[in-house]
Design goal:
The protein is an alpha/beta fold. It folds into two domains: 4-199, NAD(P)-binding Rossmann-like Domain (Rossmann fold); 203-324, N-(1-d-carboxylethyl)-l-norvaline Dehydrogenase, domain 2, CATH 1.10.1040. 41% of the residues lie in helices and 19% in strands. It has helices spanning 16-27, 39-48, 89-93, 115-122, 169-183, 202-221, 226-230, 235-253, 262-272, 279-285, 296-305, 311-324, and strands spanning 9-12, 32-35, 51-55, 58-62, 65-67, 77-82, 100-109, 127-133, 136-141, 144-149, 153-157, 195-197. β1 (9-12), α1 and β2 (32-35) form a beta-alpha-beta unit. α6 packs across α10, α6 (202-221) packs across α12 (311-324) and α11 runs antiparallel to α12 (311-324). The structure holds ketopantoate. Ketopantoate binds next to α6.
Length: 333
Amino acid sequence: MTRLSSYPWHICGVGAIGSLWASALIARGSKVTLLLRDADQLTQYQAAGGINLLEDDQKVHTQPNALIPDTPPHEPIKHMLVCCKSYATIGAVLPWRKHLVDDAQILLLQNGMGSAQALQRVMPNANIYYATTTDGAWRMSPFNVVRAGIGETFIGCFSDHLLEAEIPSPIQRLLKTSKNSHSLKNNPLTPILNISWHTDIRTPMWHKLAVNSVINALTAIYQCTNGELIKHPQGRPRLEQLCIETQDVMARVGIVPLAQGLLNTAVRILQQTALNKSSMLQDCQAGRPTEIASINGYIIAQGALYHLPCAGHKQVCEDLQQACALPTKSPKN
Ligand code: KPL
């Protein structure tokens, strides 16, 4: 097994995906430290007795070291994986800033876009990488996570000063252990991660953003499951309108269209996840802030650069605020 121990990872944002990655990295021999928000979250972590990942009825239990901003790390942070919600990025990373080396490698694995730009503004020398995943995981309770599906994760460069063809060593290690994880398929205690390097990460990032932008807010507005949106009398025409607007913005920004078209792709995903609630509907129902600003808001902002009005997306943002009756947060917060 390839060891990852020479590249310790600090994970900031230990929800469903952060917990999955912590478990998977530890199973491959990596040293992982969790960077928790505050003493309350540390108490929850201690009460849970570590991270419990449930996959195919097998429980993977890990108990990495966990820190809060008042208990600084013993060593400088060189590699940070950020899995918090995109609007929370700056607030989650800044408390650790004095422990991060100036040219730290920071890998952002989140929905939506816009947070990397905000982070680069406050940490100009950081080497920021984007990751986008179709892995499915959900949190039963703090640090108790269910793996819902094995997807694919692409990693690529965000920072302008990085070269797309140059894969940094800690990420090369991740890619190697990802390949090895297939040979470990029969070992249920090693959660599989399918990770590949992408030389044009904007494309899969935008494709995921596009799908999320036409599905998530509508399911939250109509409080329906993904499957119910397909034939929803008001939701379906709005879905189609959002697809047209999003494709127009993508064309102006220079993003290659989705191979099957956005509407076909969105409908296929709605069918495949018919019984699920979208992440935005779940946030809305739990009274949490939503990611609308870094999904639909990002598309509106990109469209505005090309004088595209994106009326459907703007209406969705307004309606969502009504439906969730919560202030939405922007990635700059
Ligand atoms: O990614 C999703 C989410 O709920 O965040 C899907 C399943 C694609 C719905 O948009």
